[in-house]
Automatic annotation (TrEMBL):
Gene3D superfamilies: bacterial protein sp0830 like, SP0830-like domains. InterPro entries: DUF1697. It holds the Pfam family DUF1697. This is DUF1697 domain-containing protein.
Amino acid sequence: METKIALLRGINVGGKRKILMADLKAMFLKIGFQKVETYIQSGNIIFQSAFNNSDIEKMLEKEISTEFGYEVPVIVRSAIDIKNLVKNNPYYSSEEGINNLHLTFLKVDPNPELVDAISSLSFKPDLFTIEKKEIYIFCDGKYHQSKLTNDFFEKKLKVQTTTRNWKTVLKLLELAETLH
């Protein structure tokens, strides 16, 4: 069994696509995942499973649609993946400034030509770095005021995304490391 983290896109935002975390946890347990924990209402679930990430994503998307009636994109990463992402963030140097950091998770590897095209764009003072299936983001101001949003990256890279602030990423890693 490997510790995994499922990131759901766009639930419980602005009163839309509401899913209670207790109901989500019950669904994960019903599917057969183990040691299921949720973190905040935005769809972060830590659990253990022997299935591969893409199979879990498909399974969860189907089950969420059946059980709650919503099409919800799901992106899954292992705890080891998250640990490496934290270690490799080019903008993260200390606890200072973490309010400016975000991590966008991509569902699949983007087309390299699209990555090259978007990487040449500048949104200073906001910065971004694309690394495989993640985008590290530094926002000089508030994330919701930045152009570097899920919608922007989905349109430019033609892949599904979801973003978490750096505090959430660190907390998910902490919870995953204590899930034994």
